[in-house]
Structure formats: structure tokens, C-alpha cells
Fold these 3 entries.
Entry 1:
Amino acid sequence: MTQLPTPRAKRLQRPSWRERRLVVGVLLVLLSATLGAKAVASADDRTAHFVAARNLVAGDLISATDLRRVDVRLDAVGTGYLRADRGAPSGSYAVRDVRSGELVPASAIGTAAQAGVQRLTVRVDAVSATGLAQGTVVDVFLSEKPAAAGPGERRRASKALSAVGVAAVLPRSSGLGSNTTTSVQLYVPSQQVQMLVEAVDADAKVTLVPVVGALAPPVP
């Protein structure tokens, strides 16, 4: 009886580095790793800066609650903004206006002397103070009493100050008769304080008119 030949088992060969599928797979892995590294590096380009948490007007004393940290990616032009990695500049003052939500320029923060303003409280008609709040910018009009007023002669108003920041609006108080007045604290340029004080002492009427397009209190 004839014996059938015994089949021999073939040994599995190790895959070669030259095989196309293996080379393509390695290239895809390398490409993915490179793209991932670039994405991470791009994210790391972001830097911490401060934005205004509320409207800031020249003369405001800056506290930590007035600034909010954000991580942003800026080009070379961003070097002029206030960095947050050095901490909030507590004890500093706003030397110019910054809107709520805007990046804070480093040049907008300085000393009280650089701000060049002083707080001055004036009493105004309640209607004149309607809608005013911290951060509002107003023009100041004075209606001075004529030296020798004739019968029926009215006061003439003139603009005394332009674009003055409101520091605070104090609670209303009842004045003489049925008139209701409100006290408003203004940031008055230092060189104009004496003029405004003398006008108020001379019984001039103060009227505040919000500046169109200037800072306004945020909508709640």
C-alpha cells in the first residue's frame, strides 16, 4: 500500500518593515503625533490678561473685583495690555476710561496723581440724576444766578466741564418744599475743582447730562 506524503507545516514569516501597509501605518501615526504637538503648542501660546469687570473711569481706585482674568492669544500688539500673571494691581487707579469686558491697557492704570482728578460731591435735581450710576460719563452744566436779577429773568446755563466720570450716586434726600435732590460724586479734574466749588457756593444750579456714546452702566 502506497503511503501518502506527509504535509509539512509552513512557518509564519515575520512582517517586513518594507511592506507597504506597515510603512503607511507608521507614517499615519507620526503625522497624528505631529499635528497633536502643534495643537498643544498653539494652545500654550495663550497668555493671561485682565479685562475690566465693570466700567472704569479715570479716578477709580482699582480692586481685585474690578478685573477679571482671561486667557487669550495675542500677537505683538498685545504686549501693551495688562498681564494677569503678575497679580491684580490693587491700590492703583484708572487714569483713563475702560469699558466693561475690554482688555485693560497697561497705560490705563497708574497712580492717583496720574489720574489727575479729585472726588467732588454735588447736589443735583433728581430728574437730572435719573439713570446715572458709577461709570457714567457726563457733561456738567452750571446755571448761575444773575447778580441783579430782574422780574422774570431766568438763569442761563453754560457747559462748565466735559466728559466727567461719575464715581457714585448717593441716596436721594428731600430738600426744601417739594423739590427732591440727589447727591452725585464726580471725578473732577484737579485744576477745575476750585471753579466748581465756587460756583456751587454761589448757589449755581448743577445739571448733569450723560455723554452720548460714552461709558454707561452695564444692563443688569
Entry 2:
Amino acid sequence: MFTGIINHLGTVEKKTATTLTVKAGIPHPTLGASIAVNGVCLTVIKTKNGVHSFDVGPDTWNRTNLGALKIGQTVNIEPSLRMGDEVGGHFVSGHVDSAAKILALEPWGKRFWRLRVELPRILRGLVAVKGSIAIDGISLTVTAVGRDFFEVMLVPHTLQDTNLGRRKMSERVNLEADPLARYTMAAAMNCRSKT
């Protein structure tokens, strides 16, 4: 479990058919620890001198933007939540629903930026204005929803301390719906099916 508050940035060091290796200043992760890389919950299989390796299966390569990562590219890193940690964002499982294309990334006023992302069919009904969504593992508040897109506002801190400030049009970002939205939708569907 994660919170969507990015504490570290990492750099992709190596990719193979089954592993991803990232250099990041994560304080002493243990083997078997869960770490979110661009919002994807991965298990540490090797760690030495700030370089960490993770197993990545075929479904994860295909469903997320990890498959498109290039050597040297910046990724968001978040160690898993521990009892007593502050939950500054929202609960994020690290189970990405879909990767989706950036449609717009542009200034919004003097210090803020607007990010518009395509809304995959699988997430329709789970994304609402003022609701939460995780984009590349970052907890963000939805500011607008259209039929096939949604928008969030990026504050200067997010632009500087996450990979979103380095993203470009048409790149794909990982999306995970807020678990509260998912369970609320499931409960509503169950109620409808019983009537």
C-alpha cells in the first residue's frame, strides 16, 4: 500500500525481459520489499549501493508504461506505507488499471500547469471531479472530466519533484483509480443487480 506522495526520483539503469533496475536513493530497502516505480508495485530482488532490481512479468510490461521506459529515464519512487506513516495523498495499491496518453501539458496561470490525459474505458465511472487518481503513482485531484479525457492541475512542487515535469505530449502515464471510487461503484452495481 502506498499514498501517492513521491519521496524519491530514480533513474532507469537496465532492463531485461524479466527485470527492471533503477538507481534511487531509497534508504536501505530489504529484499522482498514492495516499492512503487511509476505507481507500479514491484518487489525488490536485489539491492546494492542505491541500485535496486525488480522482477517484472509480461502483464506488467504490457499494461503499464514500464515497457516503454528507456535507459536514463526518470521514474517516480515510493517505498511502501508503514504503520504510523502520514497518509498525505490517498491510498494507492500499486495495481495500475491502465496506461494512457498525455493529451495536453501546458501552463495554467503563472505557476501551475494543466495536465489532460485520455480516459480509458476501464476507468469511466471511476474518475470524478474533486476525486483522487494516481498518475505514475502521484496522488492528484481531478479538476475536470470529459467523455474520453480528464484533467488535473499540477502545482510547482509536483512539477519539480516528480517525473510529470519532464513528461511530453503523447507519452503514456500509468493510471490507478481511487479505491474508494472502485468500491463505491461496485456497491452501487451490486445494489442495482439486486433490485
Entry 3:
Amino acid sequence: MSVATGKSKSNLRQEIRARLAKISPAVRAVESIGLCDRLEPQLRSAHTILFFAPLPDELDVWPLLEKFLMAGKVCALPFFDAAAQTYSARQIHNLTTDLVSGKFGVREPAAHCAAIALDQLDLILAPGLAFDLRGSRLGRGRGFYDRLLAEASGVKCGVGYDFQLLEKIPTEAHDTQVTFICTPNRSVRRQH
């Protein structure tokens, strides 16, 4: 990583985190409904979907997980493998019995949940701090989602607020791209 790229990524992370911290629960709830309405048609056409458990400052996609689980879709969440220091995908069937608090305090599948190969996913919902029109994604800085996205097949959908979609963000060779970005008010396919 070049020093300039690292510093600009760090500065952008701080800026986005500051904006996220100012979003009220009421605004988050309204924006989450808008996002879910925009995402739902994409999810209908997928059979095997990797969701994510939203952090308190992220848009809430959980209602879609509940809905598509009830509809019989194959729904998975990232599972952190502490020994390998990587995320994999595990299928969930029951939101009451299949979830535990993971390493980072994020809801994730329990150890008894079956693994799903990352190349078997039709659609991957990916959170991020920022995205750009080229499909670049700025994560939280640990690289876990970059490694997961690099191995996953299927359509990769970045999920965030409208202000998290920027013209261009700093990237490095290991950063993975998403196919499109969905916000409460926009759906943007990656430009090449």
C-alpha cells in the first residue's frame, strides 16, 4: 500500500464514519425501507443469497433476510473462521436458533450451520463505508470482506446510503469490486 493511498483511505473512513454517526435511528429506519424496496426485485431472481448482519450504523437489510428465508430461498450469512482469519458463508434456516454473536459482535451463523461454497452464491450483499461508480468498495480496513468477495461468484451488490456512493475512492490492487451499488434512492451498475 502506498503511504498516500493508505492515508487517503484512512481519511475517507474517518469522514464517512463521522457522517454515519450523525444519522438518527428514525432516518436510518426510513432509509432502510427505501433500500429494501429497491433491493427486493434483485433478490427475487436469486436462489442463493449471502446477506450481512448490519452494524448499528449500516442500513438494515434484515427484513429482507427474514422475508426471503420464509419464501424458501437459500439464505446465508458470513461466518468468521478464527483459525483461518477469514469469512466463509453458512446457511441459516431459523433466526432464533441459528445465530450467535460472532468475534466482532456481529450476528453470524452458529457452528452447526452448513457451509455454502462461495462459488455457489447467486447474489452477495456487501456492506462498505464507501463505493464509487467503478464498483470499488472501501471497507472498514481489515480486508475480510475483500477476501470473501474475491472468492465469491455471483453478482456482488454494494449496499450503503446515498452519500456513500462517490465519484471515485482510493483503491489498491487487493481491493475487490462490486457489480452494482444499491442505495435508498439509486441503483448503479459498475462503469468500466
